[in-house]
Amino acid sequence: MSTGLVIHGHFYQPPRENPWTDFVDREPSAHPFHDWNARILAECYRPNGWARIQDGYGRVERIVNNYAHMSYNFGPTLLSWLALHDPVTYARILKADRDSMAAHGGHGNAIAQAYNHTILPLSHPQDRRTQVRWGLADFRHRFGREPEAMWLPETACNDEVLNLLIEEGMTFALLSPYQALRVRPLGDPPGEWQEVPDGAIDPGIAYRWFHRDGSGRSLALFFYDGAIARAIAFEGGLASSQALIDRLSQGRGGEGRLVQTATDGESYGHHTHFGELTLAHALTAEAGKRGFRLTNYGHYLEHHPPTMEVEIQPGPEGEGTAWSCAHGVGRWYRDCGCHTGGQEGWNQAWRTPLRDALNFLREEAARVFDEVGRSFFTDPWAVRDAYIEVVLDREHHRHGFLRTHSHHALTEEERVRALSLLEMQRHSLLMFTSCGWFFNDISGIETVQVMKYAERAMELMGEVGHTAPRNAFLEILGQARSNLPEMGSGADVYRRFVDPLRVSPQRIAAHMGISALVDAEMDEGRVAEYSYQRHDFRMEQRDRFSLATCRLLLTNRATAARHDFAVAAMHFGGVDFYSVLRPFPGRSRFHGAVNRVWEMFPAASMPALLRGLAKDFGPHEFGLEHVLPEGREHIARVVFGNLVERFAEEYARLYEDNRHSLEMLQRAGLELPTELRAAAEFTLRRRFEAEIREQQLSRDPTAYQKALEIAEQAMQQHYNLDSEQARIIFQSMITDAVTQAVTGGDEAYAQSALELVQLTQRLHLGPDLRRAQELLYETLTDGAGPLSETLRRLALALGLAPVLIHSRQPGEATPAG
Question: Based on the domain organization, do 7 and 121 belong to the same domain?
C-alpha cells in the first residue's frame, strides 16, 4: 500500500523593473547581490534545479532537479526575468515539467499563476479576468501546453474568483485549509453538510466546488496540510531529510489518499539555507522507503476524482480569504494586524489610502482607455486581454497585433497612441502587485515599486492626450502616514523615491552622448526601453578634453514612439561631463551646427565652446547625474581607472621599498600593522590578477608559472590574495573547457580542464565549478559515448563521487539513470 505525496512550491518575486528602463535598479538591501531577484536566484531558484546529494566525504553522488519531483508554479514576471538573466536555470525549470509529464501520465508538475500576483478578490472584475488570462497565456508560451490549474496569489479567493477559474477551463486549484467552510458527500441526493472550522478539513483527498450559476460546471479543490506547511516554513522541518520525511509520515496516508502541502518555494534554500538539499534527499532517497509514491495533483485527480463537495469561507462581507491573512484579505487594504515586524507602535493604516489612491487612478485610466481605445478597437477590453501576446514578444508581434485587432488601418501616430493606451493599462495592472501592501511601511521598496507603475501609467495617460490626475492622486496618497517620521506621508514618499526615477527620451539621449565619450557605443542597439540608431557620429580629443556630436534616433520598444535628437557632449576630465541636445532640426541645420562646433574645437576657449554648444545644440542641458545608474557605474570605473593606477603604483613603491623590512618583521614573529599588510596584499593581488588576465586564453597550465610564484610568495608571508576576479576567470575557462570536452568529445579540452582545476587548487582560488560539475555529471549519467581515463580523473577533480564511475571502465558507456 502506498500513499501519494505532493509538495508544492510557490516560486515568486514581485516585478522589480524600473518602468522607464525595463531593468532592475540596484537594491542595496540585497547586498552583496545587485538586487533581490539575483540573490534569491543564487540561493534558491538555481540550487533547486541542481540539488546535490553527497556521500560521506562531501562528494556528489547525484544531482537532482527538484522541480521534476515537486509541484510548482513560477510567477510569470519572475520567469520573464529568469529567461533573460539565467537562461540555463530557466530551461531547467521548463525541462522539469516535461520530465514530470513523462512520469505522471501526461500531467506536468507546473501550474500557472495569475499574472503579476494581485489579490484577485479585491480586483475589478475586468482586471481579474485579464490577470487570469495573461497568466494562462504566459504559461502556454513558456511550457508549451495547456495548464490544468492556476495558483491564486496568496491563495486569495472568493466565489467570483473560483467562478472565473472554471470559466477559463481550470481543472483544480490549491487553497489553505482555513479557507474551507463545509463539506458534504456527493450523490443524488447529496449528503448532509458538515462544518470544517479552523482548518479541520481532511487534506488527503480532492473536493468538488460548483460554479455559482447552477450550471453544474466545477473544478476540484485541494486544501494543503497546514500543519506540515508550518513545520516546513517555521518549525525547522527542513533541518534534515529525516526530519522532513518523519513530519510527512505524520500525515494521514493510505491507499487512494494524498499527503500534500504547499509553501513558499523560497523556503528551499533562501529562507532555510540548504533547504533544497533536504528536499532533494527526502523526495528521491527517503520517500519511497516510507511508503510514499511521488505524484502531482493532476495525476492524482485523474485516478481519484472527488467524492465530496466543498464550500469556501466567504470572508468578512464576502471579500474573500487568503493563506497569509487571518482577517480575510485585510492585509492588502487595511490595518488588519497582519505584518512582518517593525518597531513597537508601528501600524499599517497607510494601506487604505494607498489602495484608495490606486483604485482612483485605475478608474481614471480605465475611462481613458475605454474612451480613446474605441477609436481603434471594437472591444478595447478584449484587446487588452490579448495584449499579453505583445508583452511576451515585442519584437515580432507589435505591428501584427495591431493589424489583427484594429477596426481600421492605423496611421503611425495612431499606432503609437494605441500601444501607449495598452501600456498604460499594463502598468495599471502592475501597480496592484500584492507586495505593495504586505510589509511594514509605505516607504518599503515593494510599496515604492507599485507607486512607480502608477507614475508610469499617469505619464502614458498624458502621452495619449489626457491630463493625468496627479494632484488628486497625490492628495489621496497624502493621507497615508509612514511609520518613519522622516518619511512623512505617502505623497512625500512618492516625491522622494518615484519622481527622481522618471527617465525621459531626452535623458536617454544625454546618457548615450555622455557614455560615448568614455566607451564608444555601436551605431545601433538597445538602451533601456529604447532601440537606437546613431548617425554622423564624431568624437575627438584635445588635451584632456573630449567632444562628441551625433544625430540620435530613439524608438520606444513598447509604444513605438520615435524621438530624433541632435546631441553634443563634452568631457572636461575627471567626473565633469556636459551634454546638450535638441530635437533634430533637419539635415541642413544639423550639419551647419556640427561644422561650427568642430571648427571651434581645436582653438576656442572653453567658455566660447560651451556658448557655441548651447546655441547650436541646446537648450536641454545634462550632466553625469542624468546618466542611467548602470552607465554611471561604468563611467566611474573608466574615469577612476587612472586614479586607481596611481594609487597602485604608490602602493607598489611602498611595498618594494619596504619589502625587506616587512619580511624581517615577519621572520621575527611580529604581526604586521594593518596599513603595511594592506600595501603588500594590494600589490601582490594586482600582480597576481595581471598575470592571470594576461594568460587567460591559454589552456597550458605552465603559462601561469609566474602567478603560481606570486601565490606561493603570498602564502609563505601569510598574505591574503583572495581574488574574485581570478576566480571568475578560471571559472569561465574551466566551464568552457568542460563544455567542449563533453559536447565535442575533444580529449585535449578534457585534459586542459583537468589541469586548470588542479592549477586553481595550487593557486588556492576556489572558483565556482558547479556548472562544470553539472555538465560532466550529465555526461556520466546519460549512458552515451565512451568514458576516457581523463574524464574519469576530471570527474574526481570536480568533486563527483567515485560511485558514479566505479562500474564504468575507460571506453565503456554507463547505464542511463
Answer: yes
Distance separating alpha carbons of residues 517 and 759, to the nearest angstrom: 40
What is the spatial distance between Cα 464 and Cα 159, in angstroms, rounded to a whole number?
37
pLDDT, tens digit (0-9, with 9 covering 90-100), for 47-58 = 999 999 998 899
In which domain, by residue range, is 670 found? 659-806
One domain, residues 403 and 424: yes
Of 782, 793, 791, which is closest to residue 63 (Cα–Cα)? 782
Do 515 and 481 share a structural domain? Answer: no
Contact 162, 139 (CB under 8 A): no
For helices 76-85 and 87-103, the axis angle rounded to 10 degrees is: 120
Last residue of a domain, one of 470, 501, 532: 501
Torsional sign, CA 664, 668, 672, 673: negative
Query: E strands along 252-301, which residues?
Result: 258-264, 292-294
Cell of 322: 487568503
**Which string of b and e fits 736-773 if b means at least 16 CB within 10 Å?**
bbbbbbbeeeeeebbbbbbbbbebbeebebebebbbbb
Contact 497, 446 (CB under 8 A): no
Q: Which amino acid is at 97?
A: D
For 764-806, how does the pLDDT look when each residue is reduced to its tens digit (9 = 90+)?
888 999 999 999 999 888 765 567 889 899 999 999 999 888 6
Please, which residues have CB within 8 angstroms of residue 353's CB and are 6 or more apart in sequence?
Answer: 476, 477, 478, 479, 480, 490
Mean pLDDT of the chain: 92
CB atoms inside a 10 Å sphere around CB 227: 17
- Please give the model's pTM, rounded to 2 decimal places: 0.92
Question: What was the pLDDT predicted at 1?
Answer: 61
Instruction: Decide if 798 contacts 772 (C-beta within 8 A).
Output: yes
Cell of 148: 490544468
Q: In a 3-state reduction of DSSP, which class is residue 185?
A: strand
What percent of the chain has a predicted confidence (pLDDT) above 90? Answer: 73
Position 690: which residue type? A
Paired with 322 in beta bridges are 325
Do the domain assignments include residue 450?
A: yes
- Listed residue (690, 801, 719, 699) closest to 759, CA to CA: 699
- Does 614 share its domain with 551? yes
Select the more confidently predicted residue: 161 or 733: 161
Q: How far apart are CA 80 and CA 15, in angstroms?
A: 9
User: Rounded to an integer, what distance in angstroms lies between the CA atom of residue 69 and that of residue 88?
Assistant: 19
- pLDDT for 697 equals 73
Q: SS3 of 159, please?
A: helix
- Categorise residue 690: left if φ over 0, alpha if ψ from -120 to 50, beta otherwise: alpha
Environment class of residue 386 by beta-carbon count within 10 Å: exposed (0-12), middle (13-18) or buried (19+)? middle
Neighbours of 191 (CB within 10 A): 12
Same domain for 540 and 445? no
Q: CA-to-CA distance for 137 and 283, rounded, in angstroms?
A: 31
CA distance 433 to 422: 18
Pairing of strands 172-175, 218-223: parallel
Q: What pLDDT, in 10s, does the model give residues 288-319?
A: 999 999 999 999 999 999 999 999 999 998 99
Closest C-alpha to 112, from 142, 150, 144: 150
- Which stretches within 290-344 are classed as H helix? 297-303
Tens digits of residue pLDDT in 72-111: 999 999 999 999 999 999 999 999 999 999 999 999 999 9
Report yes or no on 279 lying in a domain.
Answer: yes
How far are the Cα atoms of 186, 218, 220, 307, 309 from residue 190, in angstroms, in the given order? 5, 15, 17, 10, 9
Detail the DSSP E strand segments found in 22-161: 51-54, 60-64, 71-74, 112-113, 150-151
Q: How far apart are CA 441 and CA 437, in angstroms?
A: 8
- For β-strands 562-571 and 545-556, DSSP reports them as antiparallel
Taking CA 371 as the corner, what is the angle to CA 365 and CA 374, rounded to the nearest 5 degrees? 120
Based on the structure, what is the number of domains in the chain?
4
Looking at the fold, whether 208 and 314 belong to one and the same domain comes out as yes
Peptide bond into 500 cis (omega under 30): no
